[in-house]
Design a protein that fits this description.
Blueprint: E1 2-6, E2 12-16, E3 28-37, H1 39-45, E4 61-69, E5 81-84, E6 87-88, H2 94-97, E7 108-109, E8 122-125, H3 128-131, E9 132-134, H4 141-144, H5 150-161, E10 168-172, H6 176-185, E11 192-197, H7 200-208, E12 212-215, H8 221-228, E13 234-239, H9 244-253, E14 254-262, H10 275-280, E15 284-287, H11 296-304, E16 316-319, H12 323-332, E17 340-343
Parallel strand pairs: 10-11, 10-13, 11-12, 13-14, 14-15, 16-17
Antiparallel strand pairs: 1-2, 3-4, 3-8, 3-17, 4-5, 5-9, 6-7
Helix pairs in contact: 5-6
Length: 344
């Protein structure tokens, strides 16, 4: 089968690789109908996360059709249309049973050189009974695919931030996760969602989604936030970039007693946390990997009801063979690229 393989920084190639096989009773094999390039894939592509091994299959955003299931998978059968979480978790351990599949000691992170990758014609999904969710036929791939990662992460950020009616919410970063967080925040009737970025195409989409779009390269975000909050600062600040300067700015934007929720992938080992400021201002700081399995069914329902349409962020739909071009466009923000889907 054809698959997108990592061959080193700034180099991906579509190659023939062996077809996946059932290895464990809880495995399933799916025919991938749509995959996506995620911002966290770019961390590997650009070398920000060093990966010495090459030749493995990339990708962890996927939707497809079940072709085969192991003997331990009783809730799926061939022909089912499914979407999957970006990590495969067992569903039965201490952490999974308490709502933290992202901390499962048996979990497999998909598409990062250890677990199977999704940017391929077929994919083996570990712990398929728990990792996969059936998708209503009325929801197209372009909407459903996002519930397993970036839409769930946006919802998780809003939940961790504790967004309530009449809150002022600041979202730092208008990439795919930031845009999803803006959509999800609006489900909770905030007074305002203020979106910060520098990329015109992303800011325009944030505006179309109902946010107050602020270009921080030419506008003063702190002044605008103060104008909307009687100089208090934002009730909730969501960080969706994953860089030190971006996280540091959140402490300027949040009010005393407010909450910062960081969901941008911060891949460096340490961050200089302003402990004294957080202490004296009673700032709550939430950070972590989204347990996306928790939210998939809820988000599919919201999409089916018409309350969410994550497909609006899709700017490029490419055949799998053009994945190298997709990575280049996304990494270099060319052609107004915000989100790339791949069709095997």
């Amino acid at each position: 089968m054809k698959a997108v393989t990592f061959q080193g920084p700034y180099k991906v190639e579509v190659k023939e690789v062996p077809d996946p096989q059932i290895q464990e009773p809880t495995d399933a094999i799916i025919r991938v109908t749509t995959a996506a390039i995620c911002g966290s894939d770019l961390h590997v592509y650009t070398g920000r996360i060093p990966m010495p091994l090459t030749g493995w299959v990339l990708g962890h955003e996927y939707i497809g059709i079940v072709e085969e299931v192991g003997d331990g998978v009783g809730n799926l059968r061939p022909g089912d249309r499914v979407v999957g979480a970006f990590t495969a978790s067992c569903g039965s351990c201490f952490f999974c049973l308490r709502g933290w599949p992202s901390q499962c000691p048996s979990q497999q992170v998909l598409g990062f050189g250890i677990g199977p990758g999704a940017q391929a014609q077929r994919m083996r999904v570990p712990f398929a009974h728990f990792t996969l969710e059936k998708v209503p036929q009325a929801i197209p791939d372009e909407k459903a695919i996002f519930v397993g990662d970036i839409l769930a992460t946006g919802y998780f950020a809003v939940q961790r931030g504790g967004v309530k009616p009449d809150d002022v919410v600041v979202v730092v970063g208008c990439g795919p996760v930031g845009l999803m967080a803006q959509m999800c925040a609006r489900l909770f009737s905030p007074k305002a969602v203020i979106a910060l970025d520098t990329v015109p195409e992303r800011l325009e989409l944030a505006y179309q989604l109902g946010a107050i779009a602020v270009d921080i390269s030419s506008q003063d975000p702190l002044r605008i936030i103060r104008d909307y909050t009687n100089s208090r600062g934002a009730d909730v600040v969501i960080e969706a970039v994953g860089h030190a300067n971006s996280i540091r700015s959140c402490f300027q934007y949040v009010r005393g007693g407010g909450t910062i929720a960081v969901v941008g992938v911060y891949s460096e080992p340490e961050f200089p946390f302003p402990m004294f400021q957080a202490f004296v201002r009673d700032i709550s700081f939430q950070v972590g990997v989204c347990p996306s399995r928790n939210y998939m069914a809820t988000l599919l329902s919201l999409i089916e009801e018409g309350r969410l349409d994550p497909s609006v962020i899709v700017t490029h739909v490419l055949p799998l063979e053009e994945a190298p071009r997709g990575y280049h466009l996304f990494a270099n923000r060319q052609e107004g690229c915000i989100k790339v889907l791949l069709k095997p």
